[in-house]
Amino acid sequence: MDSTHVWIKKIACQLGALALVLTPVSTAYAVDVEISGNGNNSTSNVRVNQTCNTSVNQTSKTYAYVSINASSNTGNNSASNNTNGNVSIDTGNATTNVDVDVSGGSNNATVPDCCLCTNSTSNILVSGNGNGSNNTVNETNTQNTTIRQRTRTRAKIKIKKAKSKTGNNNADNNTGPGDTNVTTGNANTTVNVLVTGGDNNLP
Fold first, then answer.
1. Which pLDDT belongs to residue 177?
2. Cα four-point dihedral sign 17, 21, 27, 28
3. Among 140, 133, 138, which residue's Cα sits nearest to residue 36?
4. Which of 106, 77, 60 is nearest to 167 (CA)?
5. Lower CB count within 10 Å: N or C terminus of the chain?
6. pLDDT tens readout for residues 40-66
């Protein structure tokens, strides 16, 4: 019995697969502005602008090339030119199994609040004022988070040969008495291919 069993498991030629975890930066914005007293014809302007940007870019690429060349053979047997006897050929089974599993890479991103702008403390006081004073207070907190994840999986499967053979047996020119028997087993060939693309995870 000839059995060929080829396992090609978890092919992941992964280029640039990235699992990214950003650690928040403890940045505290403390704004304490006081314009007090004011006076006649005074003008007071207070503007506070806080901007925080977070950018995450992940790319995962998987390229797999699989060439299959598998065979099993219990045939090509010869029992010829025998005299005065029983002649028999029993090949047994020939089995060829090929399993291919290609899995793409994955992107995992855990993005906490890196800016912590919401934790900023502002104490703005324009007090007193006075006759004819023009007072303006503007405070702006802006947070921008941009996340881009891309995965690509390419698999090229080429089956050059996948076969099983039990035949092509010869029992010729035998001279009796006696019996001549040729028994061949089963020839089974199985090829299984599974390709799974990568995924993007953003908790």
1. 83
2. positive
3. 133
4. 77
5. C
6. 777 777 787 777 888 889 999 999 999
